[in-house]
Amino acid sequence: MGTIVCQTCNSTIEHFEDEKVSVLYTHNHNCHSCDTAASEK
């Protein structure tokens, strides 16, 4: 099981199937938390 995590706010974006347990960090990946914070400003 793998997890994609937002590098900006550290929230979980998505889970994916993988043979190993892994965490991938990304930015600008349609993060709901970051999009919400940006729209409130």
TrEMBL record:
<dbReference type="InterPro" id="IPR025236">
    <property type="entry name" value="SR1P"/>
</dbReference>
<protein>
    <submittedName>
        <fullName>GapA-binding peptide SR1P</fullName>
    </submittedName>
</protein>
<dbReference type="Pfam" id="PF13790">
    <property type="entry name" value="SR1P"/>
</dbReference>
